[in-house]
């Protein structure tokens, strides 16, 4: 663990899990900007570069901690569930507006 990983397995895993972690976290955001997108792609590249030259224990730490974060985010703060709930609220508001519009038209026709 004190030497550099010559197979590059741990730096690759650390970069992939870092990307998945930030991707899942950003998926639930209602607004996205360029900074979050740049961080989502830039940080895994930096983790990979540092993981190549750092001792393999560091890359192992990054890989395990980010894999745990991916699982934690998915099971405790599921972004897909949050997106579905937001879409349901928007759809309910649209349905309410449509019913109001139809009721108005019906009320105007009966006058």
| Fraction of residues in H or I helices | over 70%
Which range does the strand content fall in? Answer: under 5%
How far apart, in Å, are the first and last alpha carbons? Answer: 83 Å
Low-confidence stretches: none
Q: List the total number of helices.
A: 4
Rough outline: rod-shaped
| Major sheet attributes | none
Mean pLDDT reading? 90
DSSP summary, beta strand count: 0
Order of helices and strands: HHHH
| Gyration radius, rounded | 23 Å
Structural class: mainly alpha
Please characterize this protein's 3D structure.
83% of the residues lie in helices and 0% in strands. Helix 1 runs antiparallel to helix 2. The longest helix has 32 residues, at 79-110. The protein is mostly helical and 111 residues long. It starts with 8 loop residues before the first helix and ends with a helix. It has helices at residues 9-27, 34-53, 56-76, 79-110.
In short:
The protein is an all-alpha fold and 111 residues long.
Which features characterize this protein?
111 residues, mainly alpha, 83% helix
